[in-house]
Amino acid sequence: MIRYEKDPDNIVTLTLDMEGNRYNIISHDIAHSFIPVLKHLKEEKAKGALRGLIITSAKKHFLVGTDLEFYYQCTDAAEAYESYHNIAQFFRELEGPGIPVVAALNGTALGPGFEIALACHHRIALDKTDIKVGLPEISFGLIPGGGGALRLMWLLGVEKAFRIVTEGKRYTPKEALAIGIIDDVAADEKEMMEKAKDWLLERREARREWDSAGGAIEGGAVHSESSGDIIRRLTAEQYKKYYLNYPAYQTILLSLAEGTRVDFDTACKIQCRYAAELVLSKVTKNQLKAFWYDLSAIRKGENRPKGFGKFRPKKIGIIGAGMMGSGVAFSCAMAGMQVVLKDISRSVAEKGKSYTEEKIKTLVQKKEKSEAEAKVILDRITATEQIQAFEGCDLIIEAVFENQGLKSKIIKEAEEYLDKYCIIASNTSTIPITKLANAASRPENFCGMRFFRPVDEEPLVEIVKGEKTTDETIARAFDFIQLIRKTPIVVKDSWGFYAGRVRNTYILEGVALLQEGYPAALIENLGLQAGMSTGPLKMADELSLEVVLEYERQAAELYGPKYIRHPASDFLEKMIELKRTGKDVRQGFYTYSKEETPALWTDLPQLTDPALLVKGKFIAQELSPEIRIELTERMMFAQVIEAAWCLQEKVVRSVEEANIGSIYGWKFPACYGGAIQYIYDYGVDVFMERRLEYRKKYGARFRAPKWLLEEGKKAAPVSVPSIAI
Prior knowledge:
Mean pLDDT: 91
Number of strands: 18
Largest sheet: 8 strands, mixed
Strand content: 5-15%
Shape: globular
């Protein structure tokens, strides 16, 4: 695992090379394998035979993570603490006063892989934009347990350290250099090793600030006036943003605050205890389930149709240069594909191309791309009004206004210039793919690709399989989505597909509560406190109330006599009659002004039918905790039950897709692990009992599908082999 080489200057290079693995990973017992190495190095130092130490890697990446399987399975607090403590002790041994140590980062260093770099006295990285460094543990509900956050605090101060850890960002070497978490960059490996040796030859001994007499934390300890203000402000910010749903954020702040009051070794022990406590929390298990196991299953293509070779498209045609089309064009160009961006006129198409130009400028400013790289990316996009330019395309994506007639016309026109192997995809959110496929001469090559706004930021794409869409077309669409670095889920051509359909239940239940007389502000706040990204009424405005009702109309058409009209429909129709259809027209449940923050429409209570009020109109402060819980659960259960119906009706094909589709598709709270994992988090039996109560009180929309009644308990989370972060 570790190669030991010593040069004539008595500089030792330790090269990490984990056998049988693509990556170097710090497992929970890594410290044991380093003990004899560190012991030998100390002996060499004592004999005067060691000038310094360089740590690098034999693999493409430096060191990319930890054993997430261990933390997911761990149920013993002492065992979790010991695993963190062993790693923290190893890092302390490495950075102890005496032998100067340089981290030569020849590749990506993440999580504990970057913590080991932070424990070195000096850090040099190759200046490559595909190399990333950082501490992304927060996305799994974990915190750095080896003291990395504490080292950042000493180097940069409490606030900067907190931001770096809680944002979980992966930095390029130049970004990392700019913010002070590495010390130097090198053009190639030869220069990197030369710089490392030069640095070591300039000093006989190295000592960290926290191991030096009189050493001080950047910005001062927490009991200082300035740091105390920072801690209070960060506490308020995190509560406002996360409502205590994600304990890792509070935990990292607490460990930093307490770490300012004690010596570094004691601070490490405190952080290890906090890290171990998180390992056992339900939220962490849920996030690990979602972002490691479920996401890995999707990325490995477990639901990709089998038997088809990899699709590697080189030229993509995009019809429509609006926000959606421009965002797709940017994603394709970034992935190295040639793009033909067509619209009604050249000037409109060029405007769409300018979107990529602005995005690329930002990347250049951030040092993520050079000017030369930016030009290459932008030159991949051809803006045109000529449909003939689609000749030679491997894939066409239609992204025009949501109108079936317009989309059908465009599809027919485009086909004239395509060969029989080209796929056509429609980025639609409300029109059935099977209906649009009727306009194509080869419906077997036609599918849906539903992107989400903004395209360059949202990771999910729903691949919609029409009645005649072949498995080969789905497999090729799946490959394309992965090539542009997004997460594909395959969904059935049913009303609202998956994300739109389930999201609608959250909106409708929120509107139903409003109709019953509960204050709009209360409803919105309960949604936010439950972990949703926005309240149901604001979400309705952003989607458009007309679209919300359109989904209900499609459901009625599909289910026929079995369809039961949602009680919220009446209220929505009243709003539409008043032409308050949402954000696009600047008035819906909220009133929108360019100068002011959107505010709830003050006349909303007047639309409520007194006959439907639950015990009259309520004032939020008068509601009991039990009522608040019930209102919250109604909004959450509505989504979860609908997601289960989607599994039963095979709108989604797996629990993994249902979970990730919910988190990425409409921002279902990740603290629950996704819409289906919510059931296991709640407890299947307790959930079913509670659901039955709601069905008796509020009707058939809380009826459980057969999948939930008979199959739910069989779908409990399963373990998969672990690899790196």
